[in-house]
């Protein structure tokens, strides 16, 4: 029989869609399983990254269905964002028209892959029925002081003509278009994520089934540091520069101070000095640089002297005050003490600018102090305090405690905790996003839009010229509004929300997508949440995953959920490569999934994607592997032509071993080794011949991977209902026991042979078999054994 994949796949996709095969409903008597992949931006075409991500999720979802779980597996679209505006300008259309066109195209392609989505739960974040609740959440945060507006230097992308959160700056460029990010002073809206910093850090300990790499990235981004704020008084002034350090044990080695270019004291320090012009020029230069580039260890650090001096409070020494690019206003106090001998960054900077050095931590294995001129790098390890006054001779770990306590007593410092995490900038000067529901009244000031007036909808007639600035600011009917308090004339906020706002809670909306009384139905969420398995890229480790955790804790405070973390398990899948590089249009190495489906079928593509590499690792595209997947399915297809009445006992045992192995592998997302086991079972069937029971079990185990193929075979074999109404096969532990065991045969303790013998063989029978073995005859010669030592089912040691 011919495996006509085109006809079969089209048939079963229609059956699943018409019968609402994967619609999920609450069932209190069944154990639920909520599986979710990070929803896509609607670009119009799915790529191999989508195929891999969603195939991994689909196999896990279908496996859980067969195990008897009540599975929810939804899909939607993260539809707001800059690319749609750019596409609208380029194609002379509107963002909403472009976006919905792309969504329709992607829906078709996702359905062609046979993914088991509950399409009745589908939504797009650009629908007003969704972003109304973005605005509702914003207002709830505003009421609690968690949404606020302030003026500050922000990350600015000149290409996208909008601001970026710190988390959206990648390697100094815009995360979306890679344009070099600049600094710009603007008044913007922020969310006070820092209010949740302790909980965000502590609750990482709950996430036992998240990758360690993701946990480390989030912990580092939150960045809790314990140390001391040290007060350096400016020379001939009563002003103080507060410096934060985690290495107070090195304070006696501080030979200069460095301020961030944005530090409020800088302009005051340089005013009227000869250094003023040079410092101002440097500040302007740094303002155009990304903060991530400024702090990168790979970039040479630059700075200028302010002409001012401060007093080191522990020894009253004068130290010069510098301004440098590697110090950020956002971390600590925006000022650092520099200890070149014990910090590599300071060491390189001091050498470059010929600044003094003093060793204050002596390595424990060194008996004498090393001259600083002989140092080739900073010593950053532990050791003994030297040149540290009354603290000489202490270990530096003890010195940290003693010096910190002494400085607090002398009121020249204070033990403090600082955090790297900063509040989340959500303002965007774009059209295609959620309008921020705020009105500005000349009389009442900043006024939130009334809940009854939500949603504040995007106007349909905004101009798209690409010449910068917010398109909303050019729509008179949108800007003009009435004040909710005094009813007087007022104006609307024209900024929209960062699209990461939309994706920070969408997983909750899937629980009740048509609910219109709140962001989500609390009772529905109580049944379905938490997400049991979440799947997506490592690139979202800080952005989306951190924000989602923040929103969940906020909903917990509103008593809308009774948990603090949204995702139980997290899997971060690897990239798909071709010729060693990530697939991309710019590199010209794209493989179109649609053409692969046309030539080999969706099931073959799914099988190859899963077999080629474990989910967490990179996958190298290989057309031969796809051809091999098709050949394997064709081979399984032909088994139906030669079924026996009763399978050989050896094949039955192989089948039960395969059921056990594949069950464990599927549970642990080891799909490549599961497929290898199914291939071995198929080989055994071709050698020994299968009956209907063995073949049916093979087909069930293949069904999460190749669902159309398996549905068709299941029906051919006489079953009326879908294969996904069947139960996952159970293995018989008794049939896992091998009939034969391998015995190691030793002579005087040295390995001489191995024998396959029947399990439970008697010692006399064993002796007879052993002495008939040709290899042993060579070793024994005419010698007669003195002893015959048997370790059951393991080895025989013959002593001669």
Give an overview of the whole structure:
With 800 residues, this protein is of the alpha+beta class. The protein is 35% helix and 20% strand. The protein has 26 helices and 32 strands. The strands form nine sheets. Strands 8, 9, 10, 11, 12, 13 and 16 form a seven-stranded mixed sheet that branches. β31 (787-791) and β32 (795-799) form a beta hairpin. The mean pLDDT is 91.
List the topology elements.
Elements: H1 5-18, E1 32-37, H2 48-66, E2 70-72, H3 82-91, H4 95-112, H5 128-143, E3 147-157, E4 162-164, E5 169-170, E6 173-174, E7 182-191, H6 197-202, H7 212-222, E8 224-234, E9 240-245, E10 256-259, H8 266-270, H9 276-287, H10 291-295, E11 303-311, E12 318-324, E13 335-338, H11 344-353, E14 361-362, E15 384-385, H12 396-409, E16 413-419, E17 424-425, E18 427-428, E19 438-441, E20 445-448, H13 476-479, E21 480-482, E22 489-492, E23 496-497, H14 499-502, H15 506-509, H16 522-528, E24 531-536, H17 543-557, E25 567-572, E26 576-578, E27 581-582, H18 593-600, H19 602-611, E28 619-620, H20 623-638, H21 649-667, H22 671-688, H23 692-702, H24 707-716, E29 740-747, E30 750-758, H25 763-770, H26 774-780, E31 787-791, E32 795-799
Parallel strand pairs: 1-2, 1-24, 10-12, 24-25, 26-28, 29-32
Antiparallel strand pairs: 3-4, 3-7, 5-6, 7-17, 8-9, 8-11, 8-16, 10-13, 11-12, 14-15, 18-23, 19-20, 19-22, 21-22, 26-27, 29-30, 31-32
Helix pairs in contact: 1-24, 3-4, 18-19, 19-20, 21-22, 21-23, 22-23, 23-24
């Amino acid at each position: 029989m011919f495996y006509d994949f085109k006809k079969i796949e089209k048939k079963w996709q229609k059956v699943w869609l018409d019968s609402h095969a994967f619609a999920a409903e609450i069932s209190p008597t069944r154990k639920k399983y909520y599986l979710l992949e990070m929803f896509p931006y609607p670009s119009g075409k799915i790529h191999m990254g989508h195929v891999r991500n969603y195939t991994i999720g689909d196999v896990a979802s279908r496996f859980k269905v067969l195990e008897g779980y009540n599975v929810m597996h939804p899909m939607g679209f993260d539809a707001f964002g800059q690319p749609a505006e750019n596409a609208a300008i380029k194609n002379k259309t509107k963002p909403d028209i472009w976006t919905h066109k792309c969504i329709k195209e992607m829906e078709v392609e996702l359905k062609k892959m046979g993914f088991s989505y509950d399409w009745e739960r589908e939504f797009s974040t650009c629908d007003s029925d969704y972003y109304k609740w973005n605005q509702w959440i914003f207002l709830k945060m505003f009421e609690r002081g968690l949404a606020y507006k302030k003026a500050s230097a922000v990350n600015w992308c000149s290409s996208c003509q909008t601001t970026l959160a710190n988390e959206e700056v990648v390697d100094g460029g815009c995360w979306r278009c890679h344009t070099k990010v600049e600094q710009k002073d603007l008044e913007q809206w922020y969310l006070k994520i820092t209010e949740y910093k302790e909980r965000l850090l502590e609750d990482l300990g709950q996430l036992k089934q998240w990758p360690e790499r993701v946990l480390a990235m989030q912990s580092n981004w939150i960045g809790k540091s314990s140390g001391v704020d040290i007060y350096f008084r400016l020379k001939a002034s009563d002003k103080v520069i507060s410096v934060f350090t985690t290495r107070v044990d090195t304070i006696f080695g501080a030979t200069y101070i460095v301020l961030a270019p944005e530090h409020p004291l800088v302009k005051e320090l340089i005013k009227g000095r000869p250094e003023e012009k040079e410092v101002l020029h440097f500040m302007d230069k740094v303002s155009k640089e990304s903060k991530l580039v400024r702090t990168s260890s790979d970039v040479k650090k630059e700075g200028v002297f302010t002409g001012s001096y401060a007093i080191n409070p522990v020894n009253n020494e004068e130290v010069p005050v510098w301004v440098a690019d590697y110090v950020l206003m956002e971390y600590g106090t925006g000022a650092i003490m520099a200890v070149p001998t014990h910090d590599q960054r300071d060491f390189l900077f001091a050498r470059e600018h010929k600044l003094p050095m003093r060793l204050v931590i002596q390595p424990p294995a060194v008996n004498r102090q090393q001259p600083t001129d002989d140092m080739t790098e900073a010593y950053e390890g532990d050791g003994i305090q030297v040149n540290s006054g009354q603290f000489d001779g202490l270990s530096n770990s003890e010195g940290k405690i003693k010096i910190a306590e002494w400085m607090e007593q002398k009121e020249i410092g204070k033990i403090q905790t600082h955090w790297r995490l900063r509040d989340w900038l959500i303002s965007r000067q774009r059209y295609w996003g959620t309008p921020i529901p705020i009105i500005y009244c000349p009389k009442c000031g900043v006024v939130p839009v009334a809940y009854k007036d939500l949603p504040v909808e995007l106007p349909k007639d905004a101009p798209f010229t690409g010449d910068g600035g917010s398109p909303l600011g050019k729509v008179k009917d949108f800007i003009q509004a009435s004040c909710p308090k005094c009813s007087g004339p007022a104006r609307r906020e024209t900024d929209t929300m960062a699209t990461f706002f939309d994706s920070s809670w969408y997983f909750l909306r899937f629980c009740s997508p048509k609910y219109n009384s709140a962001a989500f139905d609390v009772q529905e969420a109580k049944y379905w949440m938490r997400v049991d398995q979440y799947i997506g890229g490592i690139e979202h480790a800080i952005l989306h995953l951190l924000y989602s955790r923040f929103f969940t804790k906020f909903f917990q405070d509103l008593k809308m959920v009774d948990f603090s973390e949204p995702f139980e398990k997290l899997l971060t899948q690897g990239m798909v490569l071709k010729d060693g590089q990530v697939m991309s249009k710019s590199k010209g190495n794209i493989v179109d999934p649609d053409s692969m489906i046309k030539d080999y079928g969706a099931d073959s593509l799914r099988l190859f994607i899963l077999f080629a590499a474990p989910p967490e690792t990179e996958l190298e595209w290989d057309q031969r592997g796809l051809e091999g997947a098709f050949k394997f399915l064709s081979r399984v297809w032909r088994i139906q032509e030669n079924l026996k009445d009763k399978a050989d006992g050896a094949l039955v045992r192989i089948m039960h071993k395969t059921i056990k192995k594949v069950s464990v592998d599927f549970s642990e997302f080891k799909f490549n080794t599961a497929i290898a086991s199914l291939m071995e079972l198929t080989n055994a069937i071709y050698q020994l011949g299968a009956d209907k029971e063995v073949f049916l079990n093979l087909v069930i185990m293949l069904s999460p991977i190749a669902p159309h193929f398996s549905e068709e075979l299941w029906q051919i074999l006489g079953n009326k209902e879908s294969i996904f109404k069947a139960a996952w096969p159970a293995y018989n532990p008794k049939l896992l026991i091998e009939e034969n065991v391998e015995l190691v045969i030793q002579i005087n303790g040295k390995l001489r042979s191995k024998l396959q013998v029947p399990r439970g063989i008697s010692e006399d029978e064993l002796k007879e078999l052993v002495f008939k073995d040709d290899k042993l005859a060579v070793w024994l010669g005419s010698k007669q054994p003195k002893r015959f030592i048997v370790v059951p089912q393991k080895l025989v040691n013959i002593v001669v």
